[in-house]
Amino acid sequence: MIHRLRAEDWREYRALRLEMLEDTPLAYLETLEHALAQPESDWRARTARAEQPGSTAYVAVERATGRWLGAMNAFVAADPTRVMLVSVYITPDARGRAAGVTDLLLDAVIAWARDRPTARAVRLEVHEDNPRARAYYERRGFVLTGRSVPYALDRSQKDLEMELPLV
C-alpha cells in the first residue's frame, strides 16, 4: 500500500531513514551518526514538512504486517518548473521489478509532480557509483542532463543529475 507520509509517522520514518543510511550511505547527504543524534523534535519536523505545500513524501507499507518497505520524497525546486526527487529508498527484500514497490512509489511522486501547475520535469541526483539506481531511472525515462555536483560527503566524488520531462 502506498500512502502519503504524515506528521504522525515520524517514528516509522525515523526507523526507515536509519535503515537507509546504514544500507546505502553513498545515496544520501546525511550520515547515520548525524541522524542518530537528532532529537525527536527534528524527526517530527521532517515528517511535518512532507505535508507542507510544495513538498511530499510517499511510503510503501506492507498490508499484512505494517512493515515499511520504502519511501520517496519530492519538493518543488527553487526553479518552480522542476520537482526534485530525493531520499529514495527501498528495503533490500522489496527491491526489483517483481516486487513493484519502486514503480508504485515513483508513480505516486510523478502523479504529484504532474499536479504542480508549474512543473515541467522531475529532477534527481544519483551518485556516480550507483549504477543500479541509474539504470532504474533510465528505464523509467530519466536521462542524464550532463550536469553533476560534488557529492556533499566526499567532494572527490560526484552526483549525476538526471531528469524526466513531464510534458
Automatic annotation (TrEMBL):
**What are the record keywords, sorted?**
Acyltransferase, Transferase
**Pfam families in the record, alphabetically?**
Acetyltransf_1 (PF00583)
User: Ranges for the N-acetyltransferase domain?
Assistant: 1-167
Give any GO molecular function from the UniProt entry: acyltransferase activity, transferring groups other than amino-acyl groups
Q: InterPro entries from the entry? A: Acyl_CoA_acyltransferase, Bact_Acetyltransf, GNAT_dom
The name of this protein is GNAT family N-acetyltransferase
